[in-house]
Amino acid sequence: NEGCKIFLISKSLEKDKSKYLDRFRIRHIFDQIFWLKEDESKAEYIDPKDSIYIDDSFSQRKEVFEKLGVPTFDCSMLELLIDYKI
Length: 86
Hints:
- This protein is α/β, with parallel strands linked by helices and about 90 residues long.
- The protein contains two helices and four strands.
- The radius of gyration is 14 Å and the shape is globular.
């Protein structure tokens, strides 16, 4: 990630969210985790300076782009972000 911070902003309905992340062994890759309520906007938790936004939800990507102008990517587009020269 070339020193970039990675934040998880989730509206997960899982009861034990930490256990859910532990099951996939991914909790520790995030610098910070935000658990939102369904009516909260993920855009409110994003600093638009030098940020990108990755999400599988088109409507949430659209909202973030329209509010912040942040480049957005679907999860299937991650290969575009890989620098293979490293």
